[in-house]
Amino acid sequence: MNSILKVDNLSKHYISKKSIFSKKQVVDAAKNITFEVGENQTLGLIGESGSGKSTIANLVLRLIEPSNGRIEIFGKDITNLKEDEMRKHRKDIQIIFQYTNSVLDPQMTVDELLKEPLKIHNIVKESELDEEVERLLQMVNLSSSERWKFPGQLSGGQNQRIIIGRAIATRAKLIVCDEPVSALDASVQGQVLNLLIKLKEELNLSYLFISHDLKVIRHMCDRIAVMKNGEIVEMGDADAILNNPQHEYTKKLIESILDINTN
Ligand SMILES: Nc1ncnc2c1ncn2[C@@H]1O[C@H](COP(=O)(O)OP(=O)(O)OP(=O)(O)O)[C@@H](O)[C@H]1O
Ligand SMILES: [Mg+2]
Questions:
Q1: Would 238 be classed as within a structural domain?
Q2: Ligand 2 centroid distance, CA of 133 (Å)
Q3: Domain encompassing residue 54
Q4: What confidence category does residue 187 fall into, taking pLDDT thresholds of 50, 70 and 90?
Q5: Which member of 158, 193, 194, 257 lies 3.0 to 4.6 Å from 154 by CB, making a disulfide possible if both were Cys?
Q6: Distance (Å, rounded) from C-alpha 117 to C-alpha 171?
Q7: What are phi and psi of 92, to 5 degrees?
Q8: Closest residue (by CA) to atom 25 of ligand 1?
């Protein structure tokens, strides 16, 4: 199977100082992280708040610099690429964040929001932009009538579809999803997740998928990595991990999440 993302011994530490009198403290936000995501695969990252999930997402996207280790996308080492070299690869790997009002520019119409990545990365000719916007709207199950609206005139679920549309606009093959449905109503969550699954099949995408919701992870992921204090403590087939966790921490995590869901 083709390797889409390969992360080898990746670490990120922060040096923090609570006050000018206190000693420096090293925070291992990510420590010796190794995993691989294959073509058309979804790897889920779970773990309590502060365990390092977003740190890994940001490292993979080269939004923050690693302290150690190596990142490969599509077989190319991107660990030490300078920003101008990295720019060429930005279109190949996109991120979908948790939806909040600040993710999309409220002054831009849906039309402009979808054209922006197409123009930045020169995806289609100027004369084909309108047609491409219609195609993207269709792919994310939005109607043409939404095209002239502003984010404030759309629901959270519709806005999340625009964010997904912007991610696939660049023909990215790898999409990092950091809590993509956490801010949405339960009824809308399923629709957005099913859209992500549909697009995965249609466009042969791979996802690095972060969620604290086990139901979401079960629905989406082929494999799961469980994180604690910046480290992966257990990784494997999604069903195996959820049905038969080996590590004490994974057992506790699954119990605690099931508790919250049943209360
Ligand atoms: N810029 C920073 N400076 C110092 N420490 C940081 C910084 N960014 C993250 N950290 C620390 O790194 C650790 C991992 O944070 P991270 O955001 O990756 O967690 P997370 O698993 O995504 O949590 P959540 O589920 O709450 O989103 C935390 O202890 C956090 O406080
Ligand atoms: Mg996070």
A1: yes
A2: 31
A3: 1-87+210-263
A4: confident
A5: 158
A6: 10
A7: -80, -15
A8: 49
Q: Is residue 100 part of a domain?
A: no
**CA gap 145, 154 in Å, rounded:** 11
Task: Please give the mean pLDDT across all residues of the chain.
Answer: 93
Q: Taking residues 39-64, report their average pLDDT.
A: 95
CATH number of residue 58's parent domain: 3.40.50.300
Number of domains within the chain: 1
Least confident of 1-10, 15-24, 135-144, 254-263: 254-263
Residue bearing the CA closest to ligand 1, atom 10:
29
Count of CB atoms within 10 A of residue 74's CB? 16
Q: CB of 14 closer than 6 A to ligand 1?
A: yes
Residue 136, pLDDT > 90, answer yes
Query: How close is the Cα of 24 to the center of ligand 1, in Å?
Result: 17
Structure-block tokens of residue 175: 């999409």
Look-up of token digits 């995408």 = 205
- Closest ligand 1 atom, CA of 230? 14
Query: What is the token pair recorded at 51?
Result: 């365990």
- Asked whether residue 131 is domain-assigned, the answer is no
pLDDT reading at 142 higher than 70: yes
In a domain, 223, yes or no: yes
Structure tokens given for 79: 């660990």
pTM: 0.93
Q: Is the CB of 52 under 6 A from ligand 1?
A: yes
